[in-house]
């Protein structure tokens, strides 16, 4: 019981605190989070529908898995672009609505929060479906090891990997939205690249005891995302303050 | 920032409905998870009068049997709803209210008691029977009192609505699998017909209640702000204004100061603040929605009377509620006869009639009728679906939860577009059922195959 809760918190603890501190105060952000979770779920269902005829894949060849990961990442990145389009039109609606009731338009921080909530939705969906939904046995007394990663319990590894992915998903959404908004090509490209690289890194786990190398690499990637996102947000905030302060 | 961004205020209404539904579903899932081992006993309710499902039966037998069960159940529900409408039509309102109280007592006392007992047994809580009885009795009586009485704090009422939803839903999750699915789908269809078709019992009921300006004699969750904070007030209108898009959203407060006859189509009564102190603020805040509101803002502020337009006629009130009153007698021949009036209620957006004003002193009474209302039955059947999903896997639970919540969101958005009573079950249940089977058939092998190889993306 305690172990199960622990694994769940490893995977979802940071996002839980993000949710409580940022998202839960603003109902609109909750709605954004829910809808982006739903989008991710739908994408997963479509993907699994596409791959269903080929399942189960053979356990000892790795390239079908590589193909699967590549196709999934491409599909999801396409979906992220669609999500951005929808969000863009939503933003226009919100802005015109704000004009109509003579409230200020969306602030920069608001936009970033919406992006954060959207990313959090993706990340949470990922963690929920790839890690949490398999945790049911972990609430019992026993645990489970996979052959290829025999040092650490399976649940713990998957929780740790899920945490890395939650981080990547959450903050790459912020990066991507900012990249689309100001037309920064680097930011637009870096997000799919990070996503793909992260997916590919999990392939390292396919090798025997590969998780010893794969998981730390994944965390390097996650922290890179985090640092990049932080730098970019900081820059944008400074810029917008510099822009707005002369006019005040 | 003293002028807060609109992000702070948008969607409070929706969350106000979604939060209790989520809580209800979450607790039902917990209950089914923790108690699933102990409850293998088949129950006998109106829902499986005809056919008692046996796991070893062949698929066709199960199919036919559950179809029959579902049809019988829906017919029963429809019949009881018609009786309810008849009683209401002939003004047996007091009888209805007492009956509702009685059934609330019974639901909480017997079904709730059974669930308490099984919880106590399962976790071996050390409690003696006398204490347990007294606690249960107090709990039940408080719940009974909280139904249909004005003096109770709204939070208590909302809590008891959720509790009753949980209790009945936990009971219904004991139904056999196939029957559950068929009944859910059948109820969703029935809901659609009963609320939208001309002459549908629930439509009749809502119209009757709105023309008479009475409370619906049914168990309804009201998503009114629990604390009369300035925050949770004008959401309905803001959502409405946002979705409705057009400029015709006028604030009722300012409209009523003018000659009121000029409202043709698009003037909506707004959910209004609870007490006068807030009125001025809220009205000032809102009437900017209307382009022409600037002119009469001052007068609005001066006249506290305007704050609460008494729109007595909720002609186009949007509602979907299920009242579920379950009378359970004994576990042997338990007949859960229930009346369900599936519709959601969103009062206060009706057309504004020119009404004599000056009722502000009776504000509290008036305000009992504002806010989005969601029938108890919706709570129950959402939770039944999720509880049934919980018996398979956690993955299906999440998928169903997301599907139901998004369906509810769609319904609420439709609500603000169409401005009339809408059934809350169909979209959610259909999405939930579809997602359940998609998850179970497609996603599960995919995800399990991926993760056991520690692949993720």
UniProtKB/TrEMBL annotation, chain A:
<feature type="transmembrane region" description="Helical">
    <location>
        <begin position="114"/>
        <end position="135"/>
    </location>
</feature>
<dbReference type="Pfam" id="PF06105">
    <property type="entry name" value="Aph-1"/>
</dbReference>
<feature type="transmembrane region" description="Helical">
    <location>
        <begin position="155"/>
        <end position="177"/>
    </location>
</feature>
<feature type="transmembrane region" description="Helical">
    <location>
        <begin position="28"/>
        <end position="50"/>
    </location>
</feature>
<dbReference type="GO" id="GO:0007219">
    <property type="term" value="P:Notch signaling pathway"/>
</dbReference>
<feature type="transmembrane region" description="Helical">
    <location>
        <begin position="6"/>
        <end position="23"/>
    </location>
</feature>
<dbReference type="GO" id="GO:0016485">
    <property type="term" value="P:protein processing"/>
</dbReference>
<keyword id="KW-1133">Transmembrane helix</keyword>
<keyword id="KW-0914">Notch signaling pathway</keyword>
<feature type="transmembrane region" description="Helical">
    <location>
        <begin position="189"/>
        <end position="207"/>
    </location>
</feature>
<keyword id="KW-0472">Membrane</keyword>
<keyword id="KW-0812">Transmembrane</keyword>
<protein>
    <recommendedName>
        <fullName>Gamma-secretase subunit APH1-like</fullName>
    </recommendedName>
</protein>
<feature type="transmembrane region" description="Helical">
    <location>
        <begin position="62"/>
        <end position="83"/>
    </location>
</feature>
<dbReference type="InterPro" id="IPR009294">
    <property type="entry name" value="Aph-1"/>
</dbReference>
<feature type="transmembrane region" description="Helical">
    <location>
        <begin position="213"/>
        <end position="234"/>
    </location>
</feature>
<comment type="similarity">
    <text>Belongs to the APH-1 family.</text>
</comment>
<dbReference type="GO" id="GO:0016020">
    <property type="term" value="C:membrane"/>
</dbReference>
TrEMBL record, chain B:
<dbReference type="InterPro" id="IPR006639">
    <property type="entry name" value="Preselin/SPP"/>
</dbReference>
<dbReference type="GO" id="GO:0016485">
    <property type="term" value="P:protein processing"/>
</dbReference>
<feature type="transmembrane region" description="Helical">
    <location>
        <begin position="127"/>
        <end position="148"/>
    </location>
</feature>
<feature type="transmembrane region" description="Helical">
    <location>
        <begin position="398"/>
        <end position="418"/>
    </location>
</feature>
<dbReference type="GO" id="GO:0007219">
    <property type="term" value="P:Notch signaling pathway"/>
</dbReference>
<dbReference type="InterPro" id="IPR001108">
    <property type="entry name" value="Peptidase_A22A"/>
</dbReference>
<keyword id="KW-0645">Protease</keyword>
<protein>
    <recommendedName>
        <fullName>Presenilin</fullName>
        <ecNumber>3.4.23.-</ecNumber>
    </recommendedName>
</protein>
<dbReference type="GO" id="GO:0006509">
    <property type="term" value="P:membrane protein ectodomain proteolysis"/>
</dbReference>
<dbReference type="GO" id="GO:0005789">
    <property type="term" value="C:endoplasmic reticulum membrane"/>
</dbReference>
<dbReference type="Pfam" id="PF01080">
    <property type="entry name" value="Presenilin"/>
</dbReference>
<feature type="transmembrane region" description="Helical">
    <location>
        <begin position="102"/>
        <end position="121"/>
    </location>
</feature>
<feature type="transmembrane region" description="Helical">
    <location>
        <begin position="155"/>
        <end position="172"/>
    </location>
</feature>
<keyword id="KW-0256">Endoplasmic reticulum</keyword>
<keyword id="KW-0914">Notch signaling pathway</keyword>
<feature type="transmembrane region" description="Helical">
    <location>
        <begin position="70"/>
        <end position="90"/>
    </location>
</feature>
<keyword id="KW-0812">Transmembrane</keyword>
<keyword id="KW-1133">Transmembrane helix</keyword>
<feature type="region of interest" description="Disordered">
    <location>
        <begin position="288"/>
        <end position="332"/>
    </location>
</feature>
<dbReference type="GO" id="GO:0005798">
    <property type="term" value="C:Golgi-associated vesicle"/>
</dbReference>
<feature type="transmembrane region" description="Helical">
    <location>
        <begin position="12"/>
        <end position="35"/>
    </location>
</feature>
<comment type="function">
    <text>Probable subunit of the gamma-secretase complex, an endoprotease complex that catalyzes the intramembrane cleavage of integral membrane proteins such as Notch receptors.</text>
</comment>
